[in-house]
Every structure is written in C-alpha cells, then in structure tokens.
Amino acid sequence: LVAAMVEVEETYIMIKPDGVQRGLVGEIISRFEKKGFKLTGLKLFQCPKELAQEHYKDLQSKPFFPKLIDYITSGPVVCMAWEGVGVVASARKLIGATNPLNAEPGTIRGDLAVQTGRNVVHGSDSPENGKREIALWFKEEELCEWAPVQEPWLK
Ligand code: RTP
Q1: Does residue 125 line the site of ligand 1, with CB under 6 A?
Q2: Helix (H) or strand (E) holding 44
Q3: ipTM, two decimals
Q4: How many CB atoms lie within 10 A of CB 149?
Q5: Which of 24, 63, 96, 129 would bridge with 103, disulfide CB 3.0–4.6 Å?
Q6: Which tens digit of pLDDT belongs to each residue from 85-95?
C-alpha cells in the first residue's frame, strides 16, 4: 500500500470580525499552534470593501454576497498565513462545516459559533487558493519564513 503523498502547503486563515469582537483571537490561534502548524504571517487589519469583494469574488452572484461583504468589513479581522504538511485540508477540518450548527463539536465553528453568517473564521479551500489569498492579504515583507531552533529558551 502506497500512502498518499501529502506536501508542505500554505493556507490563509482569517478570524472574522465577530471572532475579534467576541475575544476569540487567542483561542483560535491556539488551535492551529497546538495542532503543530507554523505561523508565517499575522496581522490585525481593517479590510477595505474592494479587498473583501476580491477575496469572495467566486460568491459574487450569491444573494448573500452584499451581506457577506458588510460582515467582513464591519470591524477588524485577523489575517494569518499558516504552513505545514496537509495544512489546507487539516485547517478546514479544525474549522468545521460552514454552517456552525452542522459543525462537529471539537471544531472551531462547532464549539464557538451558531450562525453561517457569523461563523468566526475563514480557511482556504485548496492549496492554489491558499497561495492566492496569502498574496492578496499580505505584502511580501509581512511574511516570515522561519525554522524552529533547539535553543533552550527557558532554563
Ligand atoms: P470561508 O470561505 O469563510 O472559509 O467559508 P466556507 O468555505 O466554509 O463557505 P463558502 O461557501 O465559501 O462561503 C463563504 C462565507 O460566506 C458566508 N455565507 N453566508 N447563506 C448564507 O447566508 C451564507 N452562505 C455562506 C459564510 O460566512 C461563509 O463562511
């Protein structure tokens, strides 16, 4: 049996305005850290309307699109880039189903959210979109490539 090759990928994770307003930033970041992924970009950011529209352009024709843009631009979001083996699909699992009422307990949405229109976090749905979204939300110099070191930080 040949195990499926899973590669190091990058994904764009965003804590939506409700997550920031409800004080869930630390809790959400912590879940990705504890899983074992590597944070390579992080900022608090008030998203302009044009950027929200570009990010969600595939949903342009949906009836909820204007409400979605109002929601995402209603307050600051936390933009994050995460790296790791299989991080795209794994992050989607950690996040849970789009409708939080269908999200399993133990997932971020399953534990922390109730409404689809207030589902606290976004995660890229493919490695291609991970790259596209990181490039859309971050400037090159805001991203940090780093490797863990063995330094005994605490003695
Ligand atoms: P996301 O992109 O935010 O990670 O969410 P997703 O892939 O799980 O869901 P998607 O279908 O791409 O929808 C993007 C976001 O739009 C909002 N939405 N509202 N019926 C509705 O009112 C509705 N449907 C979707 C949600 O915030 C969803 O996360």
Answers
A1: yes
A2: strand 38-45
A3: 0.92
A4: 7
A5: 96
A6: 999 999 999 99
